[in-house]
TrEMBL record:
<feature type="domain" description="GST N-terminal">
    <location>
        <begin position="11"/>
        <end position="90"/>
    </location>
</feature>
<dbReference type="InterPro" id="IPR040079">
    <property type="entry name" value="Glutathione_S-Trfase"/>
</dbReference>
<dbReference type="InterPro" id="IPR036249">
    <property type="entry name" value="Thioredoxin-like_sf"/>
</dbReference>
<protein>
    <submittedName>
        <fullName>Thioredoxin-like protein</fullName>
    </submittedName>
</protein>
<dbReference type="InterPro" id="IPR010987">
    <property type="entry name" value="Glutathione-S-Trfase_C-like"/>
</dbReference>
<dbReference type="InterPro" id="IPR050983">
    <property type="entry name" value="GST_Omega/HSP26"/>
</dbReference>
<dbReference type="GO" id="GO:0005737">
    <property type="term" value="C:cytoplasm"/>
</dbReference>
<dbReference type="Pfam" id="PF13417">
    <property type="entry name" value="GST_N_3"/>
</dbReference>
<dbReference type="InterPro" id="IPR036282">
    <property type="entry name" value="Glutathione-S-Trfase_C_sf"/>
</dbReference>
<feature type="domain" description="GST C-terminal">
    <location>
        <begin position="95"/>
        <end position="228"/>
    </location>
</feature>
<dbReference type="InterPro" id="IPR004045">
    <property type="entry name" value="Glutathione_S-Trfase_N"/>
</dbReference>
Length: 237
């Protein structure tokens, strides 16, 4: 018998999620920061429920069902929807220049940090591993330079978060990937050097790792390390 329905919270928000997925964590952190009540349907990524294609035909988490039955997918679309739908939470600035600068930083992080993390994990041999670690370090250095520029602006207020002394939208969408440095250290011995050229990145990272907004849904290190095993070269998916 084919499945024709799926579980959701009638009249409220339902988030289809997985605690170890860094993309899904973006949506959880945005909902929490905006103080919106929601139900969670945890999706086992190794054994997805038969109804999940009705929620997201791409079979990926996160997906958010809104109270009117609309289903949104793509973590950055979901976080931006939450910011727009609940302006009183002030997740995004109303200043167009500040929004553009924030998007530029997220774009830099999206192209120079996120893919390189997975490239390091998936490296098949020593040469590939060395190249991808260098690409990640280059990205981290440039992210640090961009943080310096932002912290010298009025909106950056000297850091240590992107938007000054408060955890904000940038951390909501980047912090889960900063958390992925844990499995990267475990599997690939990758660490960010404690030197001047990485000082700004390390300052930002430290502030993130101590922030309640990060800690409240941070997966246990062991759980995260196990979940990332599937990316390691030679380990079957
Ligand atoms: N671009 C998507 C990426 C989401 C994604 O890749 N999620 C992963 C888990 S971290 C997933 O559901 N993969 C499907 C699978 O593992 O079968 C987003 O930003 O939401």
């Amino acid at each position: 018998m084919s499945t024709t329905t799926y579980p959701y919270n009638e009249g409220g928000y339902t988030l289809y999620s997985n605690p170890c997925c860094p993309y899904a964590q973006r949506a959880v952190r945005a909902l929490n920061a905006a103080n919106i009540p929601y139900s969670i349907e945890t999706i086992d990524l190794k054994n997805k429920p038969s109804w999940f294609h009705l929620v997201n035909p791409q079979l990926k988490v996160p997906a958010l069902r809104t109270p009117d039955g609309t289903i949104l997918i793509e973590s950055l679309v979901i976080t931006e929807y939450i910011a727009d739908q609940f302006p009183e939470a002030h997740l995004l600035s109303s200043d167009a220049i500040e929004r553009a600068q924030l998007r530029l930083f997220i774009e830099l992080f999206k192209t120079r940090f996120i893919p390189n993390i997975y490239n390091v994990l998936k490296s098949a041999n020593e040469k590939e591993g060395k190249q991808s670690k260098q690409a990640l370090l280059d990205g981290i250095r440039d992210i640090g330079k961009e943080l310096d520029i932002q912290w010298s602006r009025k909106s950056g207020k000297g850091g240590p978060f992107w938007n000054g002394d408060k955890w904000g939208y940038v951390e909501i969408v980047t912090s889960s990937f900063i958390g992925n440095l844990v499995p990267l250290k475990h599997y690939c011995a990758f660490t960010v050097p404690d030197t001047e050229e990485f000082a700004s990145f390390n300052r930002w990272r430290k502030a993130i790792e101590a922030a309640p907004g990060f800690l409240e849904i941070k997966p246990d290190d062991k759980l995260l390390i196990n979940a990332f095993e599937r990316y390691i070269a030679g380990v079957s998916k």
